[in-house]
């Protein structure tokens, strides 16, 4: 039996990684996740290792699945530290529909400047952080922001080691 390229489960069968003709062995659970979208759960923690695979096709599938889990903090963190070769990243984006999906929602700062994932922004107001017990001070730089894919008013970033959601109206692009 063949092992799944993502989770190492037995009983994998070949799965084509579109739009190229490369294929990798995937178990039925991983195939369903790629086809229908994954639901956050313990099974998908295997993507933390799969994103670092030496096989580009495995990296592409891991990137697409991590991108499909925007509500999972562990998936966002894995995407933040992951690095793909430019051609592999283009392949992953090309087949995932990510390029079309991000065009639909535009995030803008307080001055109307368009924001992108990975930008650095500065807070323009003191913001109390609910549940964390501190206030994010005006002038704080938030590096490597992540855009919330389904809400044009929200972005995410780390302030004082905490990952928080920030309203776009309270930041300006640095």
UniProtKB/TrEMBL annotation:
Gene3D superfamilies: SH3 Domains. Keywords: Hydrolase. SUPFAM superfamilies: Prokaryotic SH3-related domain. Signal peptide: none annotated. Residues 108-174 form the Protein YjdM C-terminal domain. InterPro entries: YjdM_C. It comes from the Bacteria. GO terms for molecular function: hydrolase activity. This is Phosphonoacetate hydrolase.
